[in-house]
Amino acid sequence: MRANIYLGSQEIIAKDYVQRINPYSAKVVSEAALCSADDAKKALFIAKEAAREAKKSTISQRCNWLLDVAKKLKDAKEDLAKTITDEVGKPITFARIEVDRCIETVTLSAEIMRSMHGETINTDAMPSGKKTTAFFTRVPVGVVVAITPFNFPLNLVAHKLAPALVAGNAVVLKPTPEAPLTAYKFAKLFIESEYAIKDVISLVYGDAEVGNILVTSEIPRVISFTGSVAVGNIITKNAGIKKISLELGGNAATYIDESADLDLAASRCAIGAFVNSGQVCISLQRIYVNAKIYDEFASKMAFESKNLVVGSPYNDDTFMGPLIDDEACSRAMHWVESAIEEGAVPMLAPRVEGRLFYPCVMADVRDDMSIVCEEVFAPIVSLIKVDNFDEAITKMNNSPYGLQFSVFTNDLKLTQRAIYELDAGGIVINDMPTLRFDIQPYGGVKLSGVGREGPKFAIEEMSEIKSVVIC
């Protein structure tokens, strides 16, 4: 099936299309319209004009629009889940979960917008002031550019599209080249809804050329991007004076304290390290284990990881499907081989079949090894022995990333310390750092990004505060 361009509400048949190959079967599963810089410019111009009308729409209409889309998502759940599996190889069970989460994200955006409001200000509170009627309110920014990645090709689009639209903006969406049809089907639900506002969504495809036009244009007020640090850095340098929201990945870590429930910790860490084949920004990559329980935990972790089902993403019982492409497999194997050369010991030997990269647990890893210094974005996790939590804090924080960390402990004082001393956008106690609820504020510090997602917080990012004084 073809993923066509949308220039506003008008669907455009392109002259040329690019095929998308399923990463597991190597079969053609979709085709995306080949877009040009001119298509991107047209989309921006249409969005600029449409934003004027979107601004006039009522909150009620916009909320009903999103709720209508959420209903249509429920009806299309199986088709969308299969499309996700087709395009990116995500196991079908987890693809269905992603659709469910997308429904929640869209619904939450509508519910939260109904209760968003400004505040009155006491302008006579200070000696220099006087009595007035003063307040602030939130208004749409105008045009939002949304650029999304492959690992959650539906729900991460929802985290940008739903808040932007319900706040009264127009959006130009450039989804990942790996999942064009998923984004097309989702956008189509919005555009064909009876509550739709004309022309406020445009959909274009492409890589650097199209992306550069969208980012450098003077039309958008917000650039919302999820992806690599390298591209995030380019956006930051080229965007000019705009609001920029960047979710740039991480190097998630956890600490296993001697007081922890080791069975729980091993079970959750195995899931956190290997769900979606490690292709998650908050995939567990570094596990710092108290020396007193290191051997016991390592054995449990290897056991839990070995029992995960790896195979066809179309089987309901598959936990891990393929990596996204051959380059990802080669890069992952390089990480492992490099670590072994530096002295690390694989508790589960590296194993690759096609693009299936089996869980790899590396023991005796040191902090100077590249495998723990960079984001691997693959099913590889490293175990590092530490003497105490003080050492773990220092080593966990010694990273250019800071998205999410976690700690497994039954020590209340240690929990309190973790909350305030770990440098990350999110801290999880007694679960994997890969845990995310769509209602929560989500984002990182340092190279992990700027701004926060989650419907309430994204709406704030995609709106402006306007101050009003009536004397």
Summarize the structure.
The chain is α/β, with parallel strands linked by helices and 471 residues long. It has 15 helices and 25 strands. It has helices at 37-56, 59-75, 77-88, 92-115, 155-166, 180-191, 208-216, 229-238, 262-274, 294-306, 326-341, 370-373, 389-397, 412-421, 455-461; strands at 2-3, 5-7, 10-12, 17-21, 28-33, 119-120, 133-140, 143-147, 170-174, 201-203, 222-226, 243-247, 252-256, 284-290, 345-346, 352-353, 356-357, 360-363, 380-386, 401-402, 404-408, 426-429, 445-446, 449-450, 463-470.
Q: Can you walk through the features of this model?
A:
- The chain has 471 residues and is of the alpha/beta class.
- The protein has two domains: 2-248 and 448-470, Aldehyde Dehydrogenase, Chain A, domain 1 (3-Layer(aba) Sandwich); 252-437, Aldehyde Dehydrogenase, Chain A, domain 2 (3-Layer(aba) Sandwich), CATH 3.40.309.
- The chain is 40% helix and 22% strand.
- The chain has 15 helices and 25 strands.
- The chain has helices spanning 37-56, 59-75, 77-88, 92-115, 155-166, 180-191, 208-216, 229-238, 262-274, 294-306, 326-341, 370-373, 389-397, 412-421, 455-461, and strands at 2-3, 5-7, 10-12, 17-21, 28-33, 119-120, 133-140, 143-147, 170-174, 201-203, 222-226, 243-247, 252-256, 284-290, 345-346, 352-353, 356-357, 360-363, 380-386, 401-402, 404-408, 426-429, 445-446, 449-450, 463-470.
- It has a seven-stranded mixed beta sheet with strand order 15-18-19-14-13-21-22, with helices on both faces. Strands 10-9-8-11-12-24 form a six-stranded mixed beta sheet, with helices on both faces.
- Helix 12 (370-373) links the parallel strand 18 (360-363) and strand 19 (380-386).
- Helix 2 (59-75) runs antiparallel to helix 4 and helix 9 (262-274) packs across helix 10.
- It starts with a strand and ends with a strand.
